[in-house]
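Pasting as-is:
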Amino acid sequence: MDNQKNSSNAPDWFHVMPDWKIQQFKDYIAKNEDTINILSKHQNWITTSPLTNDRRHPFEKQKVSNMGENDIDVIGLARNDFEVCIEMFFVRKSKMIGREHYFFKGLQDEDKAEILSSFIKQFYIGKEELPNKIMIKEEIEDKELLETLLTQAAERKVEIKTPQKGEKLRLVEMAENNAFITLSNKEKDKYNVLTELKEVLKLDNYPRKIECYDISNISGNFIVAGMCVMENGVIKKNLSRRFKIKSVVYDQDDPKCMNEVITRRLKHSIENENGGFGRLPDVIFVDGGITQIRAAKQAMIDLNLNIPIFGMVKNDKHQTRALMDENRQELKISDTLFNTITMFQDAVHDTAIGYHRKLRDEAMIKSKLDDIPGVGSAKKALLLKKFGTVQKISGASVEELMEVKGIYESLAKTILQVLNS
């Protein structure tokens, strides 16, 4: 949900507001931009579930029999040391017809009222359909201004209420209780994955940090590796890394590639534990069987490390089949852990093959650039200096290309024609 920062980008309802209110809104946005954007920076993921299909939350299915008002949204909030869960109930004609819950990280230092205020801005401003009433547990500082903005948008009265008693208070407390249950269930799922991994892999401690590696190439060309990280049972896509393989050129030797990438990565943490890769992993998974396990194991021996290594074995259809240990034993795991391992393997495969395709495509385009008459090494260098990549050159306009010294109109058109053919 994007926030509007000026009237030219504002939703339609913004333009019918009186001038003094528009200025008030602009001043408010300018003053509170950090607060307004706080949730968009930290949003992790959203789950929407019909009430009738979610069995984890027994409280949600109750009817709101004593509430005569229509179109009410109820917002509840729960938090722990790591993240915040916001739970929403949608009440229409005295019945709860649906719910949504949202997770946010990095809000440990924010108070509940500020989080709720920011969430209301993110969720409702610019939205076409608005409820008559929004009910929350905490009083928020900018309540009156938000009510004015939402009322203008809906062209009818919209209120933000903090009920103190009765059915409405019970409904807000129910939403908060559900937020707590949702947050607890998420923590429980992560704990169960870590517990099973510890038992199945026969580890002394919980595997808080697991790294997974995959090699990607086609007939020995553009050989790369992908790395993905799982922390506390959760796959962290932002910690993924990509490697160009240096020791193998125009050959297909996946074990040697695996040995290289494991060695290079682990050296980073040995030399600087506070660097971009962070501390050493507790466990390493490699995409493949015993050959890849042995290649990774040799890297451990050479670096005088002892990190457990397991292989993620696939079937004939390239689907995850099992986890394998260093003795070629396939480990028995639950369906839940199997699904987690499958997602982990898919994530690292996507990282590796995505990088492989990027390099392959760039090489194909670069060869096109080299073949264009009139584009020598000097002009090529100037083009890459200005645009950064060949892909950006192919997406530029004729006028933009002509800003580069030596590129005239007919040559610019030729460049675009060749690169985009």
